[in-house]
Structures are given as C-alpha cells and as structure tokens.
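hey team, just a heads up i'm posting the complex here instead of the shared drive bc the drive is being weird again. everything in one block, sequence lines first with there labels, then the predicted structure for the whole assembly after. its two chains so it's a bit long, scroll down
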Amino acid sequence: MAEILIPGTPAPEFTLHVTPDQSLSLSELRGKPVILAFYPADWSPVCGDQMALYNEILPEFQKYGAELLGISVDGVWCHEAFAKDRHLHFPLLADFEPKGAVAQRYGVYRKSDGVCERALLVIDKNGTIRWSYVSPIAVNPGADGILQALDDLPK
Amino acid sequence: MSTLKVAIYPADHTQGDEHAGCTLVEYGDYECPHCGHAYSIVKLIQKHFGKRLRFVFRNFPLNESHPHAESAAESAEFAGAHGKFWEMHDLLFENQDRLSGDLYLELAQELQLAPADLQRALEQRKYRSRVRADFTGGVRSGVNGTPTFFINGQRHDGPFEYEDLEGAIEEALA
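-- predicted structure starts here --
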C-alpha cells in the first residue's frame, strides 16, 4: 500500500474543481499554511462528522491564517449539496476525474474501496509538507494534531 | 492517541468522588441526538460504578448543525452559576426534542431560578465565553464529534453503548 507523503516533502501541485465552474490550485494559496483533509465520502451519517467538526473549528484555524481544503472523490454537485446541507464555510475539492488522482499522489488513496483515506496534511506557506497523518478510516481524527502542527510551524 | 489537554479544574461540572479511580469526561451538545442517547447510558454507568467513578460534563455545541445547542449550553451554565447545573443539564437532555427560549425559561422556573435573570444572561451572552472555553479545550484535546468521551484522560474511540463504556472503564480501573 502507498504511504502518505512525509514532512519535508514538497506538496505536489494540483488543480481541482471546487464548484461546477471554478477550480482551485494549491499554488494559489502559497504564502499561507494549508490544511488538506482527505476524507472518504460526503454524507457521513453521524452528527459532528469530520467536515462538520472542522467547520465549527474554522475560527481556530483562521487564527493561524491557515486555509482548510476538504478533498474526496465525490463530484462537484455532490459536494455542493453536502456543503449546503451542513453549512460548510470552506471549500470541498472534487478528486473526481481521473478518480483519486490527487489522493494517489499524496499516497492516501484506498484502491480497494475507491475512496480517499481519512488523512490530514499541514503544508507551510512555502508549499512544503510539515505534518501528515492517516487516521483509521472509521475514526474521525479530530483537530488536535492539526492545531499542534500549526503551532509547530516556523513563525 | 488523543488525550485530554485541559485537566479537571474547580470550575468544571463534576459528579462523584474526586478521588475516584476513574474519571469519565464527556464533551457534549444538548441538541445532538447521540448525546441524548448517551445521557441515559451515562446515568446507568454512574449507578453501576458508584464511588469508583467521577463524571465531568463539558460543552461542545456544534452550532452550525444545531441552532439551539449554544443557548442550551449557556442556560445550563446559568443554572450552574446558581448551583443547579446538573438539574438543568438533566432537564435539557430530557426535553431535547423541544429546546427553545421558552423551554429554558420554563425549566428555570421549575428549578426555582429567576426566568428573567436567565433571559438577560442569554441576551447578554453572559456565559458564552465559558462555553467557548470548554469548546476550544475540547478541540485541543481531539474531540471529534459529539459526544466524545475521555476515560482517565484518554479519548474513547468507537461505540459508546453501555457495554462499551462499562468495559473501557473497568479496564481503566484495573
């Protein structure tokens, strides 16, 4: 199985759809810390699922000037409906075509299930990965690791 | 493994012996149905372990999904400031399906707290910072949804039915 990219690795560039008619490239966010949250699927049936939780925590991430991007293999329309339903205030990127290509480059694609791992990466303002973590797929990792990694970024 | 970053402190709402062998901390949301489910389980767990268990409740309102979670949490804190936290906590969970400003005032009345004072506290957001402090401490500790339990400082991952919590607490006490 592929391994998640380790700290010190330059974050691979990508461009993904964020809405049906808009794309976002990682390089557009250079100059700010970026949190990538890969997750298996929209519409997880529990309260306070991972994306909903991060939505609540957004102000904490913003204290570091960090941008949060959620990424799954769901398509743009699915993301749009999900984000609307959960009132998400951060972008969800569709790693949809070719399916899981970005996740594969980051070493966080579960081929057997055809979905992203539940994986977190913190990228510094220069585009270098500073922290990465793969959670057991059924365990929502929370945000303590992300905040610690943001704390540890060179000032 | 995520661990509790904010140790139990005097302003916490606790039940049970402070020297108990096990401390169960719940980060919860009054409007979350899973917390409503956990509410009755925790009662049974407390009954089962008696003096061996201390229970602590901290606020973790998921405001984007639960529009009444914050006001319910602030109402409980208001009651807490008047020595009736647990009474309000229980009533809120028992009336979880009808959380509203009117209900809070009704419950205050029932607990012989001044409804007008509660109304003012809610309007002035008097207990907002307290609720927020619980929330941020929870985030730092790896709270990953509601309810999240910590057993002797370790996050309890996985299901929280009676047998799950009982087993995990027994293990912590062993």
